[in-house]
Amino acid sequence: MQRLHARYPFLEAARDAVATEAVDLATVVEQDDAVVDRARERVVAALEDGETGEPRREARVELLSYPVARVLVSMVEENILVRKYARAEAATAYDRFTADLEETTELKSVESTGLDLETLLSEFDLHGDVRETSGGYRIDVGTYLPLAEDCWDDEWRLVNRALADGEVPVSEAELLVLLQEAIRSRIEEGLPFDVPEVIATALEEEEAEIRDVLADLELTREIDTVVPDLFPPCMKALLDQIQKGEHLPHHSRFAITAFLANIGMTTDEIVDLYRVNSSFGEEMTRYQTDHIRGDSSPTEYSAPSCATMQSYGDCVNKDDLCERIPHPMAYYEERIDDADDDEVEDWRDESDEGQEASGD
Amino acid sequence: MEERTRAYLRGRFRDHYRRTEITPPPAANEREWGYIPWTEGPDTTMVRHRSLLELGDLSEFLVRKRPQHVYFSAGRFRDPGASSMHAKDWQSADLVFDLDADHLPSVTLGEDSYAEMLAKCKDALFRLIEFLEDDFGFEELEFVFSGGRGYHVHVRDENVLHLDREHRREIVDYVRGIGMDYEELIDTETVAGLGRKTPTERRTLEIDGGWGARTHDHLMAFVEDLLAMDDEDALERLQEFDGIGEGKATATLNAARNNREQLEAGNVTVHTAVSQLAERFASQAVERDNAPIDEPVTTDTNRLIRLPGSLHGGSGLKTVRLERDELVEFDPLDDAVPETFRGHEITVDVTRGGEVELGGDSFTVTEGDQSLPEYVAVFLMARGRAEKEKE
């Protein structure tokens, strides 16, 4: 059992196992170097390679390293780390369970330490919502939509699915991708959390190392950088219009504001960026930005996809890169990745002077 | 609007609410309530962030406040009376669809009469219902005539109440056919080539649901039409499509004759011309079958919606909750006229006359003082086209 939990530490049962072993996390991080080391490696590998590193042979170490890794991610408290980490853990889980599924079909072994589809489905409470059919599976539409929310390719969009009677048909391969998404959101859930002082103190060294890796990779830059020159053409055009003081329809305003919030700008910074023209509507911008960020609403909104931008006529000046990406965020990430460090000057670094020049 | 007109409408709205029993929506105490009082000037300020607890008994409240408009939220909250959305603590929301004559592509504003606009809106409603019942398989549907220019559908199926804004946007796009990509409706399968060594691709339209099925319906209806024609007409009809010349027309007609079964199964590899046609019919399906719902209403999980049973202050008509089997027969301009305003006449000063179809009758209203059935007078006053006569 322990081997299964070590392989899939996000499972409810694995969490229970950690709890019932009566392990005190504070003692572990203080005394069990092997666990801490493996935890550090999980996080570093997630940042550097999008993987979780080599599993340790000792199941106990492997299993305990997962909650400790979550502690480390929480201590660093960077959104980008949470995202990268969850993505890496989910990718690892996907590799493992797809291998397991193949093995179980080949060997029909009951004693394997692997996971079968049944178990996975019930783990995420999907049993009632996923039905096997002759050619694949059908998923309840209310379950499909949240699971597919981060799948950006057009083929995942509901409008391109053969929806009938409230169910979305998916192939087995697609179902497995959706399960990976379920795992990702389970792992992201609750991160970052408040770490008790005793535990934090014992992990200061590891935390510092992760921060260094983060800084080295300049991963925070990947998203949390504001370089209007590298914005996708659609967002450039919208920002331009706002700065000229033109009145934008609600959906356009929502699109650019959500985009800016998603790349890491604060409400104040967005207000500053819009401020070039006096008629930009500070009040409304603040309200909208807080809303998008989820400060004043139950949800945190993301910028619309290319398809949505197109349908509202906001997709303009398409270039080559636009043809290859499904989402304005993907465009920006790619441009930032491609850019030399010298080119990338955060708008906020120069905004001090700019602000003075523009008066209020 | 003059104060005496406002006073009259206030009084008559109260009379209506005195004799009307209103059924609140389910979980009424978990919702936010809002209303617009009868106030001076064009500016209407909504009183909102109220819980039912604060309003008190709904019927009593309506009689006491006899508001111009009354709304409740699609969302359900832990603390619906809190003043910020954050503090309200959102739990779930009905999935709401709004069809508004003002936004229908088929409506020509300024040309279509009110009755015509509402008829077109009802056509769109039936298209929407097809999506909701067949594609989405929803069962908890409530249909409402808004009392103004359209219809609302409230969906309360358990499995969608938790969906957030982005998920609901996917539903909007589905119903409107936004972002539909013909290539994504096609399943590609590699099959051994017939009599040849190279394997070929078989491309099949997904015909079991979604826009693939709709595209297929349009394609097959066209094939039916073709087969009913004689050769010459069929070839001519085919060549009306851009990019289809005589050769492709002949190939398509042959496919329709000899490969009917393959076409019925959605196989579009029969001939390139067939694939070309299918793509054409995909856009046509969107054009003809989409339901032009008002996007922000569906995606906003905090939206306030007009209360069924209440009066619409901009028309004096009732917001009417409708059973599924009542929809076909329902005539908004007759059935939504409140009983309270029937059976007597009042005198008003009409400032903007014209045709008015109401209460199953048609009136040519001239400008100036005159006596009219009360429901016509109320409609004109509510629309700002008449004032109550001076006492």
TrEMBL record, chain A:
Residues that coordinate or bind [4Fe-4S] cluster: C234, C306, C315, C322
Q: Which UniProt keywords apply?
A: 4Fe-4S, DNA replication, Iron, Iron-sulfur, Metal-binding, Primosome
**GO cellular component terms?**
primosome complex
In which residue ranges is the amino acid composition biased (Acidic residues)? 335-360
Matching entries from InterPro entries are given as: DNA_primase_C (IPR058560), DNA_primase_lsu_euk/arc (IPR007238), DNA_primase_lsu_PriL (IPR023642)
Q: Which Pfam families match?
A: DNA_primase_lrg, DNA_primase_lrg_N
The cofactors required by this protein are: [4Fe-4S] cluster
**Molecular function (Gene Ontology), one example:** DNA-directed RNA polymerase activity
- Highest taxon listed in the record's lineage: Archaea
Domain DNA primase large subunit C-terminal, residue spans: 225-326
Cofactor note text: Binds 1 [4Fe-4S] cluster.
A GO biological process held by the record = DNA replication, synthesis of primer
Residue ranges of the region described as Disordered: 333-360
- Similarity comment: family membership: Belongs to the eukaryotic-type primase large subunit family.
What is the role of this chain?
A: Regulatory subunit of DNA primase, an RNA polymerase that catalyzes the synthesis of short RNA molecules used as primers for DNA polymerase during DNA replication. Stabilizes and modulates the activity of the small subunit, increasing the rate of DNA synthesis, and conferring RNA synthesis capability. The DNA polymerase activity may enable DNA primase to also catalyze primer extension after primer synthesis. May also play a role in DNA repair.
Question: HAMAP family from the entry?
Answer: DNA_primase_lrg_arc
Q: How does it assemble?
A: Heterodimer of a small subunit (PriS) and a large subunit (PriL).
Q: Name it.
A: DNA primase large subunit PriL
UniProtKB/TrEMBL annotation, chain B:
**Record carries keyword Nucleotide-binding:** no
- List the Gene Ontology MF annotations in alphabetical order: DNA-directed RNA polymerase activity; metal ion binding
Biological-process GO terms, alphabetical:
DNA replication, synthesis of primer
Cite the entry's keywords alphabetically. Answer: DNA replication, DNA-directed RNA polymerase, Magnesium, Manganese, Metal-binding, Nucleotidyltransferase, Primosome, Transcription, Transferase
**Which Pfam families does the protein's record reference?**
DNA_primase_S (PF01896)
List the catalytic residues.
D98, D100, D294
Q: Which NCBIfam families match?
A: primase_sml, PRK00419.1-1
Protein purpose: RNA polymerase that catalyzes the synthesis of short RNA molecules used as primers for DNA polymerase during DNA replication.
Instruction: Describe its assembly.
Output: Heterodimer of a small subunit (PriS) and a large subunit (PriL).
**What is this protein identified as?**
DNA primase small subunit PriS
Biological classification of the source: Archaea, Methanobacteriati, Methanobacteriota, Stenosarchaea group, Halobacteria
